[in-house]
Amino acid sequence: MSSLKDIAAITGTSVRTVSRALNDNGYVKAALKIEILKVAKDLDYRINLMAQSLRTKKSFLIELVCPIGADYARNMPKVEAFEEKMREEGYRVSLFLLRDIENSLSKDMDVILCQNPSGIALFHFSKIDLMVKKLNDCNLPYITLGHTEKKIDKVGMDRKKGIQSALKHFQDKGRKRIAYLGNEKPKHYYGKVRLNAYLSYMKKAKLKPLILNIPTTKDNFNIARTIGKKVSLKTLPDGVLAYSDSAALGFMQGLQSRGVKFPEDISIIGFNASQAGEVSNPPLSTIAHPNEAIGTISAEILLAKIKGQKEPKAGWSRELPPVLLLREST
Amino acid sequence: MSSLKDIAAITGTSVRTVSRALNDNGYVKAALKIEILKVAKDLDYRINLMAQSLRTKKSFLIELVCPIGADYARNMPKVEAFEEKMREEGYRVSLFLLRDIENSLSKDMDVILCQNPSGIALFHFSKIDLMVKKLNDCNLPYITLGHTEKKIDKVGMDRKKGIQSALKHFQDKGRKRIAYLGNEKPKHYYGKVRLNAYLSYMKKAKLKPLILNIPTTKDNFNIARTIGKKVSLKTLPDGVLAYSDSAALGFMQGLQSRGVKFPEDISIIGFNASQAGEVSNPPLSTIAHPNEAIGTISAEILLAKIKGQKEPKAGWSRELPPVLLLREST
DNA sequence: TTGTATGCGTTATCAA
DNA sequence: TTGATAACGCATACAA
What we know:
The structure is a homodimer of 330-residue chains. Chain A has 330 residues and is α/β, with parallel strands linked by helices. In chain A, 45% of the residues lie in helices and 16% in strands. Chain A contains 12 helices and 12 strands. Chain A has helices at 4-11, 15-23, 30-42, 49-56, 72-88, 101-113, 128-138, 159-172, 189-204, 220-230, 245-256, 291-306; strands at 61-67, 92-98, 119-122, 142-145, 154-157, 178-182, 210-213, 239-242, 267-271, 285-288, 318-320, 323-325. In chain A, the strands form 2 sheets. In chain A, strands 2-1-3-4-5-11 form a 6-stranded parallel beta sheet, sandwiched between helices. In chain A, strands 7-6-8-9-10-12 form a 6-stranded mixed beta sheet, with helices on both faces. The longest helix of chain A has 17 residues, at 72-88. Chain A starts with a helix and ends in a 5-residue tail after the last strand. At the A-B interface, helix 4, helix 5, strand 2, helix 6 and helix 11 of A face helix 4, helix 5, strand 2, helix 6 and helix 11 of B.
C-alpha cells in the first residue's frame, strides 16, 4: 500500500503538496497537480482511513446495531434505505450483530465504541435502554429504527393510521361486520394501540365492534386456525382485521377448510407484511411497515444529530404512515 | 475520550507502563498495575482501534460484501455463523452493501480497500470475478459464501448429495414413480447439476425417470401451478423432486385444486428452504442449505488464509452436505 | 521494573 | 505556490 510519502518521493515534492493536490484544497500548480494525480493512479493509491480518522477525529462510520435472529426479511429493507442515505452523505455503515445480550452487552458496547463511530443506529432489543443511556453519556448521536416502547428517539410506524386505513378500505368495499382478530385484553403497548384504534374507528363509523379473541401473543397461527375451524358460520363477519399476518393466515386456513371463500365471503387484512402472506392462497392484504421511509428518515435524523442541529420542539422521534398492501384477500 | 497519555498523567507514570499494564505484556509492579487499571476504569478508557490499526498495520476487520436486495432470510443465518466464528477469533465483521454493481463497483471496492481489512468475505454477485481479481492483486485474502460458478474460492452446498438424499428418502417411503419438476434443458450450471444428479440416481436405482418440464427459470410458481392444473391425473407420479420451493408450492396448489392430496397421493420435496414453504399447507419438505456450516467453515478458511497457511492440495473451496428438512409434504 | 523516542499515514499550522 | 514540522493514539525497540 502506497502513501502520500511515496507519491511525494516520486514526484520530488512534499507530502503536504500531494495532500493538497489529492484533496483539492489549497493551491497546486496545474502541471504538478496533473503529475501527482497520475502517479497516485499508477501506484493505485488509496487513502488510509485509519490514519485520516485518527488525525481528524472523525470516522464517518455508523454502527448499525441489530440483535441476532431478527426478522431480516423485514429489517434489511430498512437497512438498505438507511445505508443508501448515509453513503450519499459520505458515511460508511457497519452492521453489528448483538448475540448474547444478557451476558455480553457491555463488552459489545466497548467494541462498538472503540471504533469511534460518528453515530449509532439501533434495532430494538431487550436492553436497549441501557445502551442508549451509555450512548448519551458518551454524547454519541443515535437513532432507533422501528418499534420500541421505551422513551428513546425512534422512527417507527404510525399503527393507528394503519388500522384506520385498513378499516376505511373495508368500508369502501361495502363491508359492515368488521371484526378484530387479536387479543381483547392486550398487555403490550402496541397491542393496546391497535385494539384502541379499531374500537375508536368503529365507534366513529357507528359500526358494531366484534372481537375474535386470541388470548396469547404466541403461536398466533395455530390458535387463529382453531378459531377459524370452530367459529359459528352464522355470525361470521364479512371483514377481518387481524393482529398479525400469521393470525390472518391461520384464521383463513381454518375457515377455508370449511368451505368459506376469501375474499368473496370474508375480506381479510393482516399486519406486518410477512413473506408468508405473499404466497398464501389467496395472497394476503396487509398493513406494511414503510421500510424505505423509516430507513431514509432515520438516517436523516441521525445526520442532523451528528451535525449538531438542535432538537425540534416535537422531539426527534417520528411516526410514519404505513403502507396498505392490497393483494387478493380483500 | 481518554488515552494512554491521560492515564499516565494521572498515575504519574509513562505511556509505556500504562500500555504494559493494560495489555499484560511486560513487567509492571503489582500495586502500580492495580492503580492503572482502576484509573483506566474510572476514565472509561477504551483503546482507539484506529490508532492501534495504524500502528500495527492489522485491522482485524473483515468486510462481508453482499449485493443489495439479496435473499436475506437465507443469507443472514450464514452471516450470523460467520460473524460468530470471526468474533471468537478477535475479528470484527462489517457488512458492506453493493448497490449499483454495473456503475460503481470500482468505487465501492476503493471504499472497502481503504479500510485496510484483514480479509474479505463475499456473497455471489454478477461481477464477482472482477472483485476477486482485484483482491488477488492486492494480496488480500477472501472467501465466497455459497454458490457461484466462477473459479473462485467458495464454500457452498453439495447439490448432488442433496438430490441423492431426497431421492433416497422417497425410496425409503416406498415411492417408485419419482419425477423431477424443473427445466429439462437447463442452461445454468446448477440446473444441470441437479438434473444430472436426478438422472444418474434414477438410473442407478433402476427407476424410470420422468421430467415435468418448467421451460424458464422465472416465475416458477405460476408455471408449476399451471402444470399442476393440466397434468394428466392418470400418469401422475407418487413422488416429486422440485427444482425450487416455489415450483413445488405452485405444483402443489395446482393439483390440490383438483382434489389431489399431499402427501397421501403425492410426496413432494422442494429446494432451498424458502420461508413460504414453512407456512404452506402442508408445510413443504425441502433441501436446505447448511447455513451454519457454510458460515463457520468459510470463516475458518478465511482465517487460515489470513494467517498465511498454505493452500491445501484440494484447494480452498469446499462443498458441504445439505440438510434434508422433512416437514409434512413427504 | 520503568521510561524515552520513533513511526504508522494523515491533516493542519505556520513560515518561506 | 510550496515545504518543514507537529500531532492524533498506540506499539515497540532500546535504554536506563
